[in-house]
Design goal:
By secondary structure, the chain is an alpha+beta fold. It has one domain (26-113): Nucleic acid-binding proteins (OB fold (Dihydrolipoamide Acetyltransferase, E2P), Beta Barrel), CATH 2.40.50.140. It is built from two helices and six strands, in the order αβββαβββ. The radius of gyration is 17 Å and the shape is globular. The termini are far apart. This is DUF6152 family protein. Residues 1-20 form the signal peptide.
């Protein structure tokens, strides 16, 4: 009986964990925003890269793609650094939190689709 309960718990927990991490519905995809400026920080890590950038007089958290996807599409850890000027297009959180999910990043003359 214990095995059945453990298996049922695992089946329920896996989708919940996936939804908690990929809560893309919290971003307003009806209103894309484009922001240009220098990155304040860059973290090249998993499950996805992150950065910070000033926008609307606030430091915004920037959610990038998984590092493996960025590398496959031509953006590596040396492409974006603290102080690097970039253009980001993505979606802001619906709740007003200063955070955006980035769909596209332009560094110099190179544009990379992240999703």
């Amino acid at each position: 009986m214990f095995r059945y309960i453990a298996a049922a718990t695992a089946l329920v927990a896996i989708p919940v964990a996936a939804i908690a991490h990929h809560g893309w519905s919290s971003y307003d995809e009806t209103k894309p925003i484009t922001v240009s400026g220098p990155l304040q920080t860059v973290v090249w890590g998993n499950p996805h890269g992150t950065a910070k950038m000033m926008y609307q007089k606030r430091a915004w958290d920037v959610v990038l793609a998984p590092t493996s996807r960025m590398i496959a599409r031509g953006l590596d850890a040396n492409s974006i650094n603290k102080g690097q000027r970039v253009t980001l297009t993505g979606y802001a959180r619906r709740d007003g939190t200063a955070e955006m999910r980035v769909e596209r990043i332009t560094v110099g003359d190179t544009t990379v689709e992240l999703r």
